[in-house]
Amino acid sequence: ILEEAREEIAKVSTSRELNDVRVKYLGKAGTVTSLMKRLKDLPPEERPNWGRMVNELKDEIERILEEKKAEIARLEKEELNRKLWADPTMPGTRRSLGHLHILTKVQEELEDIFISMGFSIVEGPEIEEPWYNFDALNTPEWHPARDLHDSFYINEKYLLRTHTSPVQIRTMLSRKPPLAIISPGRVYRRDYDATHLPMFTQMEGLYVDHDVTVRHLKYFLEEFARRLLGENTKVRLRPSYFPFTEPSFEVDIYFNNRWFEVLGAGMVHPNVFKNVGYDPERWRGLAFGLGIERIAMVKYGIKDIRDLIRNDVRFLENW
Ligand code: PHE
């Protein structure tokens, strides 16, 4: 019986199983207990011997059970410790932080460049009256930009501004020259393809002072292009037409072995000065306008302007 019990106990691995074995041998109906019960059926002279033997058996089984119990407790504790164990020398998990949108970064970079050249930032409403958006800017009724096909009209009195030039008008109406301002902001046009968005971001510059010439214009544009894209960047002006500037230019920037057409510019038309109450005999102005999306595309080699607004993290994570 002892050998049998020893083997069974050795096989046990949980305290529950161990308890089953204890009941089997030492319980009320257990093997050892029923041996003890046989005592009364034995002749009196054999009883002391029998009793001692059964007691020794019982003690030995109890001792083995206790031993096993201690072993199981130790194993269970080890297991628990293994589960709870943390290695303080392990590197932490990296948390990914969000960052500014590439357009915001480019806009801030442009703002920094112009602020460092003495310009200040002004903003204006995105819902405009045609007078500020067109008439004050010497853009007559017949001009195609005023057409319903090109502009978003909200009703007869208001439209979504098609450029940030009306901000220049509002600023000149409220401030006396000289002034140097840039006006970043959203503008709206009926256009949508790989190089046009119906809503995009412009930044226009205006510098009004005595004796401002095209040389100043070229200087500002070259300085801006070099700071944004590097020392080797070149700038060229080509004659063009805008109603609010005379002369007017398309401005190309040479970058990565290519010319990019990214700006419109010119000298403020005398009619614009008259419209805001500046004396065109005393004041000269230079103005330029750029699309921030276009600038970002040139600088970062982005092919499709729509990628900038798709909000695909796989794209946005690149910058
Ligand atoms: N306002 C013009 C546009 O939106 C850009 C421009 C600004 C051109 C200033 C010349 C001078 O196209």
TrEMBL record:
Main localization category: cytoplasm
Reaction catalyzed: tRNA(Phe) + L-phenylalanine + ATP = L-phenylalanyl-tRNA(Phe) + AMP + diphosphate + H(+)
Example GO biological process: phenylalanyl-tRNA aminoacylation
A GO cellular component annotation in the UniProt record: cytoplasm
UniProt-listed InterPro entries: aa-tRNA-synth_II (IPR006195), aa-tRNA-synth_II/BPL/LPL (IPR045864), Phe-tRNA-synth_IIc_asu (IPR004529), Phe-tRNA_ligase_II_N (IPR004188), Phe_tRNA_ligase_alpha1_bac (IPR022911), Phenylalanyl-tRNA_Synthase (IPR002319), tRNA-bd_arm (IPR010978)
Cofactor descriptive note: Binds 2 magnesium ions per tetramer.
Family that this chain belongs to: Belongs to the class-II aminoacyl-tRNA synthetase family. Phe-tRNA synthetase alpha subunit type 1 subfamily.
Protein name according to UniProt: Phenylalanine--tRNA ligase alpha subunit
Species of origin: Fervidobacterium thailandense
Protein encoded by which gene: pheS
